[in-house]
Structure formats: structure tokens, C-alpha cells
Amino acid sequence: MNDIGRMDAIIHNAGVYLEPSRSTTAEGHAKTLAVNTLAPYLLTALIDRPDRLIYLSSGMHRGATGSLRDIDWTERRWNASQAYSESKLCLTALALTLARAWPEVLSSAVDPGWVPTRMGGAGATDDLEMGHLTQAWLAVSNDAAATVSGGYWYHRQRQTPAPLARDPAFQDQLMDRLAALTGIALL
């Protein structure tokens, strides 16, 4: 990716939800962790630093337990909703870690809401337009609010993420765990 030049902004938008079983990647990682957390971590580690990083999280990150011991679900009985929540807690913590570690980069997490997409389903009740407008706003806007790093956003309003996502000790442990799982240190 670096061959095409440095990016101004990266929006980490890929995600999977409610995998019925611990299906695995070729590397043996749970697909939910791999897509929702490991992929954005690796991409961030391997690209030239952009000016802005935006990570799509979920309000469900608040339901995560925060245990990093078995984030790849190799020992626990599979729970799709909990795996998703944990992966989004890790992603939110990643965004906030980078805001702390890389002050020259604007790093934010966005909760697009429960929107009617293939992943959210037709019954989703949130505003699809506001979900994507927040990401785009953070990627390009020079508004004072959009140029503050370390935010967790929902419909262009700054929200408070889960306490663990904001905890520097948890963030540091997460970075160590992700480095161990991928073989690549980000910080």
C-alpha cells in the first residue's frame, strides 16, 4: 500500500458481526478478532503514518469484559456477541492508544450506530447517513471538534467510551498482546 503514496486519512471500516462459530483465518485466529481488530492493527503498523486515523467501533464495546488473556477465543466457549464486543473494545482502545502515542496523528473511534446495512440488518433503527457522515467529517474536516485526537464519536457528537478503552495500562497490555498475536510491534 505504501507504493501508492502516503494517505492523508485512513478509515478502518471493515467488520464482521455475530459469526456463528469460531471460524478461523488461515493463521488460525478467530475471524471476528482478525477482521475487527488484527487487520486494522496490522494495516496501521505497516502503512506510512497518515494525518488521520478513524476506526469504526460499536456501542457494544461497552459490554466487553476486557480480559486480554483469551482474546482469540482458543480456550473459552464461543460467544459471538461477546467476541464482537471484545473486538470493538480492543479497536476503540487502539484508536485511543494511538492518540496518546502519536500526537501528530489525529486518531478517533466512531460508533456509526445500529444502521440498516447488510451487517446491521433491515430492522436497524439508526440513521445510516449519520453513520457515514461522522467518519467522513473526521477524515477531512478542519472544524475544531474534528481536529482533536482521542475522541469516541457517535453522530458527530463526542461520547465517553468504556473506561477500559481509556485506561493506559489496558492500552499498553493490548498493544503487547496484539504484537504477540501478529508478530509485528506497532509502538
Structural notes for this entry:
Helix 1 packs parallel to helix 2 (80-101) and helix 2 (80-101) crosses helix 5 (168-182). This protein has 187 residues and is α/β, with parallel strands linked by helices. It contains five helices and five strands; from the N terminus they run E-H-E-H-E-H-E-E-H-H. The mean pLDDT is 93. Strands 1-2-3-4-5 form a five-stranded mixed β-sheet, sandwiched between helices.
Q: Give average pLDDT, whole number.
A: 93
What is the assembly state of the chains in this entry?
Answer: single chain
What is the CA–CA distance across the termini? Answer: 20 Å
Number of strands: 5
| Sequence of secondary-structure elements | EHEHEHEEHH
What share of the residues lie within helices?
25-40%
Strand % is: 5-15%
- Outline type: globular
The total of helices stands at 5
Largest sheet: 5 strands, mixed
Rg, nearest Å: 16 Å
Protein structure class: alpha/beta
Q: Which strand order does the major sheet show?
A: 1-2-3-4-5
Uncertain residue segments: none
